[in-house]
Design brief:
By secondary structure, the chain is α+β, with helices and mostly antiparallel strands. 28% of the residues lie in helices and 26% in strands. The protein has two domains: 83 residues, Sandwich (Immunoglobulin-like), CATH 2.60.40.10; 146 residues, Ferric Hydroxamate Uptake Protein, Chain A, domain 1.
Length: 299
């Protein structure tokens, strides 16, 4: 069979159609490639746009020791604003960072516990990033004054007052108890002790403290026994007393205060062994009685 030119052209037509479609595809491009080019172009254009400000990083240190200062608060306040536009807190290594800080004039403030507050005028340029070092000065903390009042509590520990009170034997008073009761005389506190009786004296005499059966207790002042029958009000005023121990029966009296008596009163004064106590003719008379008694016994 002879194939003329018409037959040859008919056979070549499908091949030409395929080549024409390939060329068209190359010229127009695929949709996916066109879209990718558009996205990449957007990204490129986004990178080319200038940012709104620069990055500022820094470190806060103690000007004296050079040690880093954590937890310091740093603020940038635009001039004429009064309101911080950027704020940061230094980390444990003293470092901090502020992003997108526009160029302009600012007031940089810094505050940290134990350091003087800082306020400096600064100018931020357009070139960044910028790294700065801020040195701050330590400041002594101003605390409320502490008032220390010396009391005789240590003295009472030495006498064994608190040890005896812990045994639960006897009745114990400290200065605060006299103040709380607003006692006018030392004997006034005995009115609250079971079995105790305050016998008021006549004109010019003092009250006597007795216990059951008419027992008149022995009186010890700062560990020293006074004369027999001495009333606590004769030689002591309320403001003299730091603490007092009361033993209502012979069996309850500690050995060091037991002289065969039926009861005992042990008084500890605010200034043992002397002090600036108010003058009293009664106290002077009792002291004179002690001296005369000592002279009589030594004869």
């Amino acid at each position: 069979m002879k194939i003329g030119r018409n037959g040859a052209w008919t056979r070549a037509l499908p091949l030409l159609g395929v080549l024409w479609l390939v060329g068209l595809f190359i010229l127009v491009g695929s949709p996916s490639l066109v879209g990718q080019e558009s996205i990449d172009g957007d990204r490129t254009r986004g990178q080319d746009r200038p940012s709104s400000g620069i990055l500022i990083t820094g470190e806060v240190v103690d000007v004296n020791s050079g040690q880093v200062v954590p937890s310091a608060e740093i603020q940038l306040i635009p001039s004429g604003s009064g309101t911080p536009s950027h704020r940061a807190v230094s980390a444990g290594n003293g470092r901090f960072r502020m992003q997108d800080v526009p160029a302009g004039d600012y007031t940089l403030t810094l505050s940290a516990l134990g350091f003087r507050d800082l306020a400096e005028e600064v100018q931020v340029g357009t070139q960044g990033p910028v790294d700065i070092r801020i040195e701050i000065v330590p400041d002594a903390l101003e605390l409320d004054p502490i008032i220390v009042t010396a009391t005789a509590r240590g003295y009472l520990h030495q006498t064994g007052f608190y040890d005896r009170r812990r045994t639960g034997i006897g009745t114990f008073f400290e200065r605060e108890e006299f103040e709380r009761r607003a006692a006018f005389r030392v004997s006034d506190v005995f009115r609250s002790i079971p079995g105790a009786r305050v016998v008021e004296g006549g004109f010019g005499s003092v009250a006597q403290v007795t216990f059951r059966g008419g027992c008149r207790p022995d009186l010890y002042v700062d560990g020293v026994r006074t004369g027999p029958g001495t009333s606590v009000d004769e030689i002591l005023a309320v403001h003299d007393v730091e603490a007092m121990e009361v033993y209502r029966g012979a069996a309850s009296i500690p050995a060091q205060y037991s002289r065969g008596g039926c009861a005992a009163i042990v008084v500890w004064t605010r200034e043992p062994g002397g002090g600036d106590r108010p003058f009293s003719w009664r106290r002077l008379g009792v002291a004179a009685g002690f001296v005369l008694g000592a002279l009589f016994l030594t004869r």
